[in-house]
Design brief:
Elements lengths: L4 H6 L20 E5 L4 E9 L1 H12 L2 E4 L7 E8 L1 H9 L3 E5 L8 E5 L8 E3 L11 E6 L5 H8 L2 E6 L4 E5 L3 H11 L5 E5 L3 E2 L6 E2 L11 E2 L7 E6 L17 E2 L13 H15 L6 E2 L2 E6 L7 E2 H13 L4 E4 L8 H12 L3 E5 L17 E7 L17 E4 L1 E6 L2 E6 L1 H19 L3 H11 L7
Parallel strand pairs: 3-6, 14-17, 15-18, 15-20, 16-18, 20-21, 21-22, 22-23
Antiparallel strand pairs: 1-2, 2-4, 3-7, 5-6, 8-10, 8-11, 9-10, 12-19, 13-25, 24-25
Helix pairs in contact: 6-9, 7-8, 9-10
């Protein structure tokens, strides 16, 4: 079981510059190219585990892949132009396998096992392929360049603009027009960079627990002295008139005004209270805190957002004094624009925390997968990795994947890596507030208390 409260814990920017020329983080160069048309497979793999390998096989072939639970094998192989059957020999080694035809027109099934095929019962999800918004580009201008003038020349519409980052989110008539613009901008002396923009989907919605109230949270805001500020990059936060609102700073919206329901808590509201719980648990029994939370709405009235708004929300949060940035959201897409904002913030001493994602795969979720971000996955009641949670080697910490919060006098539960990340952010802030020292020291202490998961 997870230990409760403190026992669980013990066990376990003004003038920010966008550095366009900084290199992107390099992920592992492992590759698997499976051509169904040519019936040929190429591989250059040095550091995958069995799950990662099967995820890529499923994505490349369209097969449903089932694995015998607790079967492990490191995969390291290099070959070219192999037939699929021989490729599976080289990828799976001495493990047993059976490829069965699909039923009722469904996909074929690959069973992988170490004892017998009947034990191959764990479905391995296919690796996700990121898809940028096809008719959009993020364009960063050099000093003095006008994004409006550039958009007019390109026949594009400016649907987002950042004065501080000298950038714009441009929408074109279609994907072909966006691709043509990208090509033409490579030689434009007024343009610093052109990047893809990726969708960021909505987050899990809290469910009513049926209980009359959430667990009591005894935390009071201290007014004296300057405390740590957490930037909550999320949906809008509802204000209920409770004493906890003294922890909230005036909010920022980068995507328009949100329409908030009075009947159920938003994701941002849930993360706000989860941050407070993380602060409380790591506050060494002290019921007061100087920590403050800056809500930054990157969704506005929309059900989804993009990496452009996330980057702008981070930038504005740092400009307003946030030194810990909580990002309980994510995308499959890796865009240099968002990375540069995070890298610049990290270089200036900010701490970033991101949720690893709610799919049981090893593929990276961004921004959590950037090396400057503490990537948090979710644990379940026995203290093991939650069945729904991402578990890639980019994961840095694990925290409880369930948070019970109070809204309008009723208890609501939200599950996922979102509350796990918020818990970690709150824990870092609470540790720094009570013990002093640097934020990096507090972050290291929390990560030691809440290490990455033990696999099932």
């Amino acid at each position: 079981m997870y230990p409760s409260g403190r026992t669980w814990a013990l066990n376990a920017v003004v003038g920010l510059a966008l550095l366009i020329i900084a290199p992107l983080p390099m992920l592992a160069a492992n590759q698997l190219n499976w051509s169904r048309e040519k019936n040929s497979v190429d591989a250059d793999i040095s550091s995958w585990d069995l799950i990662q390998t099967l995820e890529h096989i499923s994505e490349a072939t369209g097969w449903q892949v089932y694995l015998e639970p607790n079967t492990k094998r490191p995969v390291s192989t290099k070959f070219k132009g192999r037939a699929p059957d021989r490729a599976l020999d080289l990828l799976l080694g001495d493990l047993g396998r059976v490829l069965l035809p699909g039923t009722n027109g469904g996909p074929s099934r690959l069973l992988v096992f170490r004892s017998k095929e009947q034990n191959a019962t764990r479905l391995v999800a296919a690796v996700r392929k990121p898809k940028p918004i096809p008719d959009e580009l993020i364009v960063t201008m050099k000093n003095g360049g006008s994004i409006e003038d550039l958009a007019k020349k390109l026949g594009a519409k400016v649907v987002g603009k950042s004065a501080g980052l000298h950038s714009g989110r441009l929408k074109f008539e279609n994907e072909d027009a966006a691709n043509a613009a990208r090509d033409s901008l490579r030689s434009n002396e007024d343009v610093a960079s052109t990047d893809p923009n990726f969708p960021v989907n909505g987050m899990p919605v809290p469910d009513a627990t049926g209980s009359a109230a959430a667990p009591n949270l005894k935390l009071q805001p201290v007014k004296e002295g300057e405390g740590v500020v957490i930037g909550l990059i999320d949906t809008a936060v509802q204000r209920q008139g409770s004493a906890f609102e003294s922890f909230l700073l005036p909010g920022i919206s980068v995507a328009g005004e949100a329409t908030l329901s009075s009947d159920n808590p938003s994701h941002g509201t849930s993360m706000f209270e989860t941050l407070l719980r993380g602060i409380s648990v790591f506050n060494d029994g002290n019921n007061s805190s100087r920590v403050r939370i800056l809500p930054v709405d990157v969704y506005g009235p929309n059900g989804t957002t993009t990496t452009y708004e996330v980057a702008e929300g981070i930038y504005q949060a740092m400009q307003k004094g946030a030194t810990i940035i909580n990002m309980s959201l994510g995308s499959d897409g890796d865009t240099p624009y968002l990375y540069q904002v995070i890298k610049a913030g990290s270089d200036s001493g900010h701490i970033f925390v991101g949720s690893a994602g709610n799919s049981p795969v090893t593929t990276p979720t961004f921004p959590a997968a950037y090396s400057q971000v503490i990537a948090v996955t979710a644990g379940d009641a026995p203290g093991l990795l939650a069945p729904y949670a991402n578990r890639g080697n980019f994961v840095d910490a694990m925290a409880p994947g369930s948070s019970v919060i109070s809204f309008n006098g009723q208890a609501w539960r939200v599950n996922g890596t979102s509350p796990a990340a918020a818990y970690i952010s709150g824990a870092i802030a609470g540790t720094a507030d009570i013990k002093g020292g640097s934020l990096s020291q507090a972050a290291a202490a929390v990560q030691r208390s809440l290490p990455p998961p033990r696999p099932r």
